[in-house]
Design brief:
The protein has 116 residues and is mostly helical. The protein has a domain of 37 residues. Helices cover 78% and strands 0% of the residues. It is built from 4 helices and no strands. The longest helix has 28 residues. The radius of gyration is 26 Å and the shape is flat.
């Protein structure tokens, strides 16, 4: 089996790439189950909401006259609790026995911030 351009045999790398594509990439499609569809739809909706978030930012910027820097800061502070949810949840799981202590620390921090 020779290629028409060079007259040489095709390399084994192309064959290995095709095997990977055939077994791994198409294998995902073959193993698809109907029960996987709802989580995939949620991930798809989350991705689409990223695009609509861009449009929303431009709309708010134009209609309310807010600067891009203010909207970026607002997005940062609004997303910070969501970003910290996983590492803080892991710490709580590690120290589950002392969860009442964490509740008291959280209440004290909220009180300190409120009085500030």
């Amino acid at each position: 089996m020779r290629t028409e351009t060079s007259g040489r045999l095709p390399s084994k790398n192309w064959f290995r790439l095709w095997q990977w594509f055939r077994y791994d990439f198409f294998g995902i499609v073959r193993e698809m189950r109907l029960s996987y569809l709802p989580p995939l739809m949620v991930y798809f909706a989350a991705g689409v909401s990223g695009f609509t978030g861009i449009v929303e930012s431009f709309y708010v910027k134009e209609e309310l006259g807010l600067s891009a820097a203010f909207l970026a800061g607002l997005g940062f502070w609004a997303g910070l609790p969501w970003a910290l949810k996983m590492p803080l949840g892991h710490l709580v799981d590690l120290f589950w026995r002392q969860k009442a202590f964490f509740v008291y620390i959280g209440a004290a921090l909220m009180t300190a911030v409120k009085d500030y």
